[in-house]
Each structure stands twice: as C-alpha cells, then as structure tokens.
Amino acid sequence: MSDSLIAVVMIALAFLASLISIETAISVTILEILMGVVGGNFLGLHTTSWINFLATTGSIVLTFLAGAEVDVDLMKSKLKESLLIGSFSMLAPFFAAFTYCYYIAGWSIQASEIAGVALSTTSLAVVYSVLVETGLTDSETGKILMASCFVTDLGTAIALSTLFAQVRWTILIYITVSVIVLILAPRILSWVFQRYGDKVIEPEIKLILLLLFALIYVAELGASHAVLPAFILGLVVSKIFAKHRQVQHRLRIVSFAMLTPFFFIRAGMNVSLREISTHLGLVVTLFVVKFVPKFGGVYPLARRYMTKDAMFTTLLMSTGLTFGTISSLFGLNAGYINVTQFSLLVTTVILSAVIPTFVAQKWFEPDHLISNGDQYVVEENEE
Fold first, then answer.
1. Exposure string (b/e) for 353-375, b if CB count within 10 Å is 16 or more?
2. What is the pLDDT of residues 323-335, one digit of tens each?
C-alpha cells in the first residue's frame, strides 16, 4: 500500500470514528484505536516513518496540553492526594505484573521487569482526551487526575531508567536542553504572546511546536522520550495559557483534528488478532494483573479524597497506552522480550486504554455535570 493510500485510509477511519463517536457518545479515543485494529488486521495498513512521526508528535502535543490544563496552585494544595494516588497507581500493578510474569508465566527477570513497567503506566493522553470530551479539564477532579497521571508516569520512567540504565554522554544533552527550555519558555512565550499574539499566522503555536520538536530531538539523542519534559513544559506555561485560552483552543483543534488520530490509530495497528486468539488466556490474565492491583491501589484513596468521582477516577487511572507501548518497544529492541511477549503486552496495554475508558464514560461519568448544549458546566460542590 502506497503512502498516499495509507493517508487516505487512515483519515477515512478517523472521520468514521468521529461520526460514530458523535452518534453513540462513545469516546473517539476508543473508536480510533478500534479503527486501527481493523485497519492493521483487515485493511493492510502498516506503519511508516511519517506515521510514526505524526503519532509521536500527537502524543507529545497531547501531553503538553494536559500539562497546560493543570492548575499549579490546585496541584500544590492537592499534592498529597496526587502523590498518593499516582504512586499507588504505579507500584501496585508493577509488583503484581512482575511477580506473575516471573514466578508463574516463567518469563526471564528482564522480561518480567519490562512487563511490570509496561503494565504499571497510566495513559495521560487517553485521560486528557476523555477529560476534554467530557468538559472536565477545568474541574478539580480533572486537574487532580492529570497531576496523578504525571506522578504515575514519572514513576514508570524512573523505574525503566533505573532497571535498564544505559549511561551515555548524550543523556547530558537531553537533560541540559530540557532544563534550559523549561527555564526560558515562560519568559519567551510571554514576550511572543504580548508582541505577536492574535495574528492569523499563529506565531505562538509555531513557537510551542518548535519547543516540543526540540524536546523530541534531544530525547532521541539521549535514548529517552519527551513525554515527561513536554508535560512539565505545559505545567510551567499553564498560567500564560490561562490568560490566552484562544491559543490553547486553537492548538487543541490542530491536535485533535490532525495529529492524535494518527497516534491512536497507530496504537490499534499494533494489535495482532492472531496473537490474541492464540494466547487469549494469557492476554486476559495480564489484563487482570494490570487492572485489579490498579483498582485496589487507587480506589480506596479516590474514595477518600474524591468521593463523588472515585470510580470514574479509578477507571481512568487504570488506562494505559503511550508509555506502556514505549516500554514494550524498548524491551523488544533491547532483546529483553520476544515478538510474542511484545504483542501480548501491547495488546494488554491497548485493552486497558479501551475497556476502563468505555466503562468510565458509559456508567460512571460524574453525575454532577450538567449538559449544556455542546459544553458541560461543573456544579459547585455544596458544603
């Protein structure tokens, strides 16, 4: 299949997913992943370098936008809740997955560690997409959720780096450039917004993309990933974005219309229905090993700190996608896991993006939201 035909098919699938999402009220994230499964298994879709580039860009832009939505003051005031929920969300499934894969499934210790990392993640991209669709990004629940996701993914990144550390001098470039970008970005963006804001050629958005592409490039040099610095970048410029909501809205349009469909559809393309049918029992077991400890670790805390939205929070914290796939791919490329183990882990990760999200939106969407046309208004909590 030629590149141009692949583009036609993928955009057609993204368009179809959008229509079905509107008609059925099912998250477009879920539908785009499912479209990727169909495309990869039945339509002959395959990944290319340009698809990988657009998908990576989509995940990074989504992560940046998620960071920009976090209320820093609220995050500070709810730091205890975010740290506890995020930490238990990571640690419980990590140890459960490692224990099962090493002692029961008979995987090697390195493969079991990769499984532990891959199945301990929470997908910031999925959570943010759902919050945008439901209008919860400005709510206290949404902000705590995103902060908790960051804690979880930070923990998985630290675990992956600690367990499989590869000391390279290029990692210094990655760290140095990331720190410089994070320090200078607020000042540069403030100046650009003030001097060149509200222009049809969108210099602000181009500058943001420049910073994100720079982070992607230096992350590749350092054999790392730009997810975490992209989130922190969004965090440090969140107050600037709060004053320029139109720019944030336009960047969100660019992301959801063009970039994120490639990210989610490509994720679905990684699912092999043949591998699932051959190892269905193991896939189900791995899903349970990921979900049950996540639920057990998060729900009691969510019940304590976010009483109204405890189940919704727990289900979204049980999702996985971006970093779980990255961890699995790292293990495959490094020779720690084989192709079958990779397929099983990625399939489990993608199922964890689809099933908890569907259940959360279908039955546990916060009932203190009032539908108001295309927008959602958050009721003030009565004390």
1. bbbbbbebbeebebeebeeeeee
2. 888 888 788 878 8
